């Protein structure tokens, strides 16, 4: 099984997360810009279908990518675990898409590009994708 930079496997990192269940918080799951609405009462999060109790790092991916990691002080192993969880769930969605009948529509081509990108991120993280 592949090891993280910290030398842990995904399984041992998941076990670590489970051992800290008393520290879990409600997490949104997809707190990116498209799920944020600013109104008269301030910023609101919408689309709570992915709500779960989990380590706080579950919601940190976009913030870490934006350079806020130093202020958040995430556990790197937990951040990596949820990045992997996200990628695997995306790959599973694409697998369901392609398991159903499809005829090569623009949506099918877009989904195939998305699948290739997710697989590339797992096999060669950090490398830029095709233009």
Q: Nutshell version of this structure?
A:
The chain is mainly alpha-helical and 131 residues long. The protein contains 5 helices and 4 strands. The mean pLDDT is 88.
Strand percentage lies at 5-15%
> What is the structural class?
mainly alpha
The quaternary state of the protein chains shown equals: single chain
What is the spatial order of strands in the main beta sheet? 1-4
List the helices and strands and how they pair.
Elements: H1 10-19, E1 25-27, E2 36-39, E3 42-45, E4 52-54, H2 61-65, H3 69-72, H4 76-99, H5 106-123
Antiparallel strand pairs: 1-4, 2-3
Helix pairs in contact: 1-4, 4-5
Q: What structural keywords apply?
A:
single chain, 4 strands, two-stranded antiparallel sheet, 131 residues, mainly alpha
Notes on the protein architecture:
The chain is mainly alpha-helical and 131 residues long. The protein is 47% helix and 11% strand. It has helices at 10-19, 61-65, 69-72, 76-99, 106-123; strands at residues 25-27, 36-39, 42-45, 52-54. Strands 1-4 form a two-stranded antiparallel sheet. It has a two-stranded antiparallel sheet with strand order 2-3. Strand 2 and strand 3 (42-45) form a beta hairpin.
């Amino acid at each position: 099984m592949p090891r993280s930079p910290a030398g842990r496997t995904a399984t041992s990192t998941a076990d670590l997360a489970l051992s800290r269940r008393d520290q879990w918080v409600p997490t949104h799951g997809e707190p990116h810009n498209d799920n944020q609405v600013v109104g008269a009462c301030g910023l609101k999060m919408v689309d709570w279908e992915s709500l779960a109790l989990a380590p706080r790092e579950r919601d940190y991916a976009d913030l870490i990518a934006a350079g806020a990691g130093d202020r958040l002080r995430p556990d790197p192993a937990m951040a990596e675990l949820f990045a992997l969880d996200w990628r695997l769930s995306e790959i599973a969605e694409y697998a369901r898409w392609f398991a159903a009948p499809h005829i090569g529509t623009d949506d099918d081509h877009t989904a195939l590009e998305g699948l290739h990108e997710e697989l590339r991120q797992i096999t060669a993280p950090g490398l830029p994708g095709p233009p």
